[in-house]
Design goal:
Elements lengths: L7 E3 L9 H18 L2 E3 L22 H26 L6
Parallel strand pairs: 1-2
Length: 96
């Protein structure tokens, strides 16, 4: 529906208990896809949040308020460049 949309791919990590070979291959899927399709990549959406007790709710899985702030910062590190490039490229900041 929006062929001119800019896509940002958010990468995830497999749990380390699945072994180094699997986790490495899992991680590579995101980088390979982003490179092959020309997508902006957030390498790991939960960087600084996953496995950090103080960044998660009591279930240890879902981010709390501080965790969500960190996720937003992680995404913004990539998204800001995408938006600036898009605005500079066509001379105006308009939605796709």
């Amino acid at each position: 529906a929006y062929p001119n949309a800019s896509i940002v791919l958010a990468g995830m990590e497999a749990p380390p208990n699945l072994g180094p070979e699997y986790t490495s291959a899992f991680r590579a899927v995101y980088a390979d896809l982003a490179e092959g399709q020309g997508l902006a990549l957030v390498p790991f959406l939960l960087e600084g949040v996953a496995g950090e007790r103080r960044m998660n709710q009591s279930d240890g899985i879902h981010p709390n308020v501080d965790g969500h702030r960190r996720v937003a910062e992680t995404v913004w590190d990539v998204l800001e460049d995408v938006l600036l490039t898009r605005c500079q490229g066509d001379g105006a900041c308009q939605p796709a």
